[in-house]
Amino acid sequence: MYAYWARCVAEGQPPTPRAVAVACGTTIHAARAAVRRYKAGIVPKRQSPGLAPKTVRNIHTMIHRALADALAWKYIADNPASHIKPPKKPRSRRPVWNAQQIQTFLKSIQTDRFVALFLLELTTGVRRGQICGLKWSDVDLDAALITVHDNRVVVAGRAVNKAGGKTVNADQTIAIDRATVAALRQWRDLQDKEREFFGRDYKSGDYVFTYEDGRPPHPDSIRQRFDRLAIAASLPRITFHDLRHSYATVALKAGINPKVVSERIGHADVGYFLQTYAHVSLDDDREAAEKAAGFVLGDAWLSGTADT
After folding, report:
1. DSSP character at residue 127
2. Residue 63 gets which letter from DSSP?
3. Which residue in 62, 24, 20, 23 sits closest to 39, CA to CA?
4. Rounded CA gap, 129 and 221, in Å?
5. Which residue numbers delimit the Tyr recombinase domain (predicted)?
């Protein structure tokens, strides 16, 4: 879409969202969002030719697994994929908000319709598709538990319901805190009043988060809403997905066991989780070193060096 939009702008004829949608074969919703981003200066990064290292690794894993089964069934005598070394996946630290910035954001959105959605995201770290696809049948406010499994994802610009999570661990039941339970109760009361007001015109679907008439929000609408709210709060720009990483980072800094945090956010591999958030452990280790040394040494070391 960006190539088409940029070409038209260079020719002095900026295309409308509808023109972009028709030319690129996407929805008007996706085209509007794209044009809004391009006008704001948020453009796609230039990609190097070929597949990304992560994609190559995923393909290699799938082929290796298939050939391993063939080897076990004695269809082949050797697994050729075992001799291939996939490319290393570069690790980059995602931008996150600290606890103070999260609190600033939550205070600034107290009157927003979807404040409970953002609160739930920042206290659980579940994926966007899971929070958009969450249904009341999967929420037990009395027990303070939610079960996340179904996804509401975006395919070719359209919101599509998808059963099951991204990983095996993504489908699970997790606890929620008292503040989030209270916010969800308040939100459900409002939703019940709206359901009564609209009557038969209310769109039934049992979704936890909806518009006034019961329609579930498009996942991209939630992302765009978050972008606007973050800008209004004068906070550093991060993506909605980065809220997930912000939760994990703050939880680790709060002293929560890494295995527990990994399981709560649905990571399939605890080892991968520890590698991803190794910088948090390193920061904590550095802080521990300073605190321990300060307690053990006091001013003795400085006094000793001053006397020499």
Report:
1. -
2. H
3. 20
4. 12
5. 92-290
In whole angstroms, how large is the CA radius of gyration of the chain?
24
Global confidence as pTM? 0.70
Report the distance separating Cα 303 and Cα 308, nearest Å: 9
Q: What's the domain count of the chain?
A: 3
Q: How confident is the model at residue 257 (pLDDT cuts 50, 70, 90)?
A: confident
For the beta carbon of residue 58, count every other beta carbon within 10 angstroms: 14
Q: How far is CA 105 from the centre of its chain?
A: 16
H runs (alpha helix) in 94-239: 99-108, 115-124, 128-132, 178-198, 219-232
Burial category of 116 from C-beta neighbours within 10 Å (exposed 0-12, middle 13-18, buried 19 and up)? buried
pLDDT bucket at 204, cuts 50 / 70 / 90: confident
| Whether residues 175 and 202 fall in one domain | yes
Residues 75 and 157 occupy one common structural domain: no
Strand partners, 160: 153
pLDDT tens for residues 8-62? 999 999 999 999 999 998 888 888 888 988 888 888 877 777 888 888 989 999 9
What residue type is assigned to position 35 of the chain?
Answer: V
Q: Residue 86: name the closest of 58, 49, 48 by CA.
A: 58
